[in-house]
């Protein structure tokens, strides 16, 4: 067999006529860490797969999805802004994708395109593996009402959280998310939760009962803003766990302050890793090499940090 070798981030990818293609679609997409993570995993297990990133405009989304079937791709990940718009073009949705109302992974099962949402799974596994806490019977307080909040709130309901409370600067956006969750959760005879205003006094009323405190906003991304300044820290119980969906930087000011005060913290980087691991399993049927995927992402950040430091010195 004549294999073509492609060097990718220090990994030698071997490509032939039987190589299976997977990837991610979004806009923009150049920032994605998924190719780094997945190609390292394929290499570790000697699987004949390659993962690529594709920038897809909104008007081209339907044709891009048709291409999965036409070209025989094993599947793709879906990221911003296509996670909800892609749904009408799929043949079937998994229960959690229906509950969350968004798709981030598509599996091509013999020409049938099935939409999954592995973001919620990634959140749940990150909590379990990094902080030793499960969602069942927990009170979850979610800051924000965007795409990450949809996945995290939906997974919390599916996994049996006692309550889910939302807060967002735009109250109507939080209301819309909660109404959607309540409609979806009626299928499992649960009430999704409630909304409180973005206000320190309102937060002070709910935080003493919150087991898991989650930031899903972009506050703190790339050092922009400090959510820690809005938190009434004196009202939080000592065994609460803090999670930040932001992973650039790996430890936001929000998490740094929580850690300084003695709380367990979980970076959104692990949600990224575990959601990717679940997608990997769907496509390949193989157990994902979590440690390899984690190392690939951490190595990427270490190298980027060195490059940024070098630019600063220049």
TrEMBL record:
The active site is at 83 (proton acceptor). This is Shikimate dehydrogenase (NADP(+)). It comes from the Bacteria. It catalyses: shikimate + NADP(+) = 3-dehydroshikimate + NADPH + H(+). GO terms for molecular function: NADP binding; shikimate 3-dehydrogenase (NADP+) activity. Homodimer. Involved in the biosynthesis of the chorismate, which leads to the biosynthesis of aromatic amino acids. Catalyzes the reversible NADPH linked reduction of 3-dehydroshikimate (DHSA) to yield shikimate (SA). Shikimate binds at residues 32-34, 79, 104, 119, 247, 275. The gene is aroE.
